[in-house]
UniProtKB/TrEMBL annotation:
PANTHER family: NITRITE REDUCTASE [NAD(P)H], PYRIDINE NUCLEOTIDE-DISULFIDE OXIDOREDUCTASE DOMAIN-CONTAINING. The keyword Flavoprotein applies. Residues 5-305 form the FAD/NAD(P)-binding domain. Its cofactor is FAD. Keywords: FAD, Flavoprotein. Coiled coil: none annotated. This is FAD/NAD(P)-binding domain-containing protein. It comes from the Bacteria. GO terms for molecular function: oxidoreductase activity.
Length: 412
């Protein structure tokens, strides 16, 4: 059996950053990365640029095979870890290989939730997470452009925003079906979400709340969808973005504590000593908000990869960051910063108004900022992140915060 001093499961940004960090801090230690995907690291953030023809396919890659060789990081591509034995310190892969480890990192990200609807196996139904998905969608765009230039997107999510701007750029008429009352309902309050919907409609996107597909129509390939309301829509392609799951069953069986993600302390170490986690799958103890917290964005995954790598090398590092996620769509933008719900805050202050096209909510606890959601107020992002990080006491300016023109920068 081959044994590695550092074994990393998942070759995304969290896993790759951890491997690089370990190599910087331990020149000789043996490092292996097990990656279910058959690719070196690539950017999920720019997949939509490829769909829009803004960058060529090759530009999606952030590392090449040589990089791993040079850094003496063994990359096992197209292999899935499926069993963990914490007492023997062994991982079993789907091809039966067993690897031992001294330190283990789980950086397995998430998998798109499966959409279970009649006809979903018709050719032309896609999810959007991997480089392979992007390739498939691109091919489909080219196919339907002239014969059936209509797309239906399932789910009002961030992924929907990346997709919709790509489809519009490619001249496809796009409808977004939202099962709940409004867009991004699990992340945004109604007014912010409605502002996003206003922007989409202004760009000729149809957004249909309370609508679900009953059946995908077609004969071998997608031609449209029939909705539960009875309506039918033309569609040469259906793109599904209904959230991700973390596939943690095999880790639970091994005795790893989980909630929605894998539970970890502020050093990103799980309940099993020597087993760490990082990235989308990691639900860590957030020292800033004093809560167990999971974050699903690139910057967080990268920084957690770095912190986990340091901790695996014995350099004790508390993971502390204000995570931010921003997205641009058409001529608008939305941004999430820190804790963005009332679970982690005691009250919220509204800045701006939907009618004026710019709206934000500041979330506060003990008169200190813990998070914010911003639509078309991206210029406030860095001040907000600094106010959260520095735990600035806002008691004396509480009454001013709701003034959309009050400059947050002056508080720093
Ligand atoms: C289309 C798209 C657009 C996005 N846009 C943005 C954006 O604009 N800004 C932003 O901040 N974030 C964005 N995100 C989110 C961001 O990409 C993720 O937060 C980030 O990639 C998480 O990195 P990760 O390394 O934790 O997980 P992943 O990137 O998911 O990598 C995990 C890897 O582990 C592999 N794996 C899983 N299980 C196993 C196993 N058992 N064995 C071996 N390998 C396994 C997976 O196949 C995957 O390759 C976007 C995501 C998508 C899909």
């Amino acid at each position: 059996m081959t044994k590695f001093e550092y074994l990393i499961i998942g070759g995304g940004i969290a896993g790759t950053t951890a491997a690089e960090t370990i190599r910087k801090n331990d020149e000789k230690g043996t490092i292996a990365v097990i990656s279910e995907e058959s690719e070196p690291l690539y950017s999920r953030l720019t997949l939509h640029h490829y769909l829009k023809d803004l960058i060529p396919f090759e530009r999606l890659y952030l590392r090449n095979d040589n990089f791993y060789k040079e850094k003496k990081i063994e990359l096992f591509k197209g292999k899935k870890a499926q069993k963990l034995d914490v007492s023997k310190k062994e991982i079993t892969l789907d091809d039966g290989q067993v690897f031992g480890f001294d330190k283990l990192l789980i950086a397995t990200g998430g998998h798109p939730n499966q959409w279970q609807v009649k006809g979903e196996d018709e050719k032309g139904v896609f999810c959007f997470r991997t480089i392979q998905d992007a390739k498939n969608i691109k091919r489909r765009i080219e196919k339907i452009k002239t014969i059936n230039p209509h797309v239906v997107i399932i789910g009002g999510s961030f992924i929907a925003l990346d997709l919709v701007t790509s489809f519009v750029k490619q001249g496809l008429k796009t409808t977004i079906l939202v099962r709940r009352d409004y867009f991004l309902q699990n992340r945004l309050d109604e007014e912010c979400a409605k502002l996003i919907e206003d922007i989409l409609r202004k760009n000729n996107i149809e957004v249909l709340p309370h609508e679900e597909v009953e059946k995908v129509l077609g004969d071998g390939k997608v031609e449209g969808v029939r909705l539960k309301s009875g309506k039918t829509l033309k569609a040469g392609m259906v793109a599904v973005g209904i959230g991700i799951n973390f596939g943690l069953e095999w880790l639970k069986l091994a005795g790893i504590s989980t909630n929605r993600g894998i539970l970890a302390n502020e050093y990103l170490e799980t309940n099993i000593p020597g087993v760490f986690c990082a990235g989308d799958c990691c639900e860590f103890w957030d020292v800033l908000s004093q809560t167990q917290h999971r974050v699903g964005n690139w910057q967080n995954a990268q920084k957690q990869g770095e912190a986990a790598g340091l901790n695996m090398c014995g350099k004790k590092t508390i993971y502390e960051t204000v995570s931010t996620y921003s997205i641009s769509f058409f001529d608008a933008n939305a941004c999430f910063c820190g804790m963005t719900d009332l679970d982690g805050a005691s009250f919220a202050v509204t800045r701006g108004a939907r009618e004026n096209g710019s709206l934000g909510h500041l979330f506060l606890k003990n008169n200190r900022l813990v998070g914010a959601t911003l639509v078309n107020r991206l210029n406030e992002q860095s001040s907000i992140a600094a106010l959260i990080k520095n735990k600035v006491d806002l008691s004396v300016v509480l009454d001013k915060l709701s003034d959309p023109n009050f400059d947050l920068q002056v508080l720093l």
